[in-house]
Amino acid sequence: MHVYIYDDYLNKSKYNKIVNRVEIRLTDLGLNGKIIRLSGIKNIKGSIQGEIKLGAKTIVAVGNNQTVNKIIGAIIDTDVYGDFQKKTILGLIPIGEDNSIATSFGIKEAEEACNILLARRVEKIDIGLAGNHHFLNQATISALNTSLEIDDFSLEIKARGEVKIVNLLSDPREAFKSNPHDGRLDIFIRAKRNEESFLSAKKFKIINPQAQLLVDGVINLNTPIELSVLKDKLNVIVGKERLFE
Amino acid sequence: MFSKGNNLEKFKDAETVIGASIKVKGNFQGQGSIIIQGALEGSLKTDANILIGDRARVVANIESKDAVINGEVRGNVKAKNYLAVGGTAKIFGDVQYGEISIAKGASVNGQLLMLAEEHKRGEKVKGEETATETSK
Q1: A159 interaction partners in chain B (CB closer than 8 Å)
Q2: Chain A partners of B32 at a C-beta cutoff of 8 Å?
Q3: A188 and A86 in one domain?
């Protein structure tokens, strides 16, 4: 059974047309299922986990990165699954802006996403963890005065720029590669004009008293904060054009 | 043997690169090749290769398979296979190597010890050495 989670902002009239088109396409493909609108729900996690307990096999986020962030926690929480119940799979139908996660999954637009749901190509991927917040793509912070504590050493950055902590690459034009199956987070530091640094780690602490960590482009978190990775934690439906192997 | 192209080829797929505006403190250990262009204090060890850039300042003992030193290193250097000391390198510490090449202008202040013949010869060169010629 498919359960579709519609984000709040899809109530705006400018999205009516695309939402209607998606619903018609899903019906044509025989993929219609229960719709939950986040605008009327206070306990999102509880509602989604209620559906998982009732046997939902696929939870589909209809919206953007923020929608995915709201529902990941509910899906990966193992307490919700019965002894022999298979893990619920995450699907995505991107609508509107901020859809880098869909780009990573090889999903460019909403109607194509319906076909990808039907094809049901499933990949198991790592999930990043920043404090208690899960993320799929990346977390970013200003480079100047940021320090990282990794294993037995620390890094101090004394130049302007940006630190990117990547689980899943969202921009195919980036010069670097990142693997969401390796159980590690890739750390890319771009300072000054052309200076690039990179390394990877399983677990580390990031500290910058003057800046916040932006997770998946939607949540700002204060530092110090610990980042880590949950290996192969989430099953997702992806397209052929996904940005990882 | 000391051609820049050959030495840098090994670092094309380096797993770790530390840029010039970054300072590392502590015991830095990796599995893949490491390039240091910034500052490092502590120790530096990998099973693969290490390149110390010409602007890098390293206060650490270094251990790797191959190593290319172009910057300043205060500490002992151990390259189990091949060590290339560039013309801009300044090493203040003992150097152990399988094979070595030293470019004109490099300075090595410490003992040079060839690892393969360590037990046979026990030959050590003490004191400050300033290379005048690229060997090999």
Answers
A1: 21
A2: none
A3: no
In this prediction, residue A169 carries a pLDDT of 83
E-only strand ranges, B70-127: 72-74, 77-85, 90-92, 95-102, 107-109, 112-114
Identify all chain B residues contacting A148, using CB atoms and an 8 Å cutoff: none
- Write down which residue in A95, A120, A145 finishes a domain: A120
Instruction: Place B103 in a pLDDT band, splitting at 50, 70 and 90.
Output: very high
Tokens representing A137 are 């793509």
Q: Is A19 inside any structural domain?
A: yes
- The structural domains of chain B, with segments of one domain joined by +, span 4-130
Q: B22 touching A, CB under 8 A?
A: yes
SS3 A219: strand
Say whether both A106 and A136 belong to one domain: no
Whether B32 contacts chain A with CB within 8 A? no
Domain containing A196 equals: 130-230
Instruction: Return d(Cα B14, Cα A121) in angstroms, integer.
Output: 33
Instruction: Domain count for chain A, please give it.
Output: 2
List the single residue in B19, B25, B37 with the smallest CB-CB distance to A153.
B25
Q: Terminus-to-terminus CA distance in chain B, angstroms?
A: 6
Residues A25 and A108 in one domain: yes
State the CATH number of the domain containing residue A25.
3.40.50.10330
User: Is residue A91 domain-shared with residue A183, that is, in the same domain?
Assistant: no
Torsion angle of the four alpha carbons A48, A53, A57, A59, in this order, in degrees rounded to the nearest 10? 0
Each residue of A169-182: pLDDT tens digit?
877 777 677 889 89
Say what the ipTM of the complex is: 0.82
Instruction: Inform me whether the pLDDT recorded for A39 exceeds 80.
Output: yes
Q: For residue A46, is it within any domain?
A: yes
> Are A68 and A13 found together in one domain?
yes
* CB contact (8 A) between residue A199 and residue B16: yes
Structural tokens at position A131: 């404090």
Answer whether B18 sits within 8 Å of A157, measured CB to CB: no
What integer pLDDT is reported at residue B110 of this predicted model? 95
- Give the pLDDT confidence of B21-70 residue by residue, as tens digits: 999 999 999 889 999 999 999 999 999 999 999 999 999 999 999 999 99
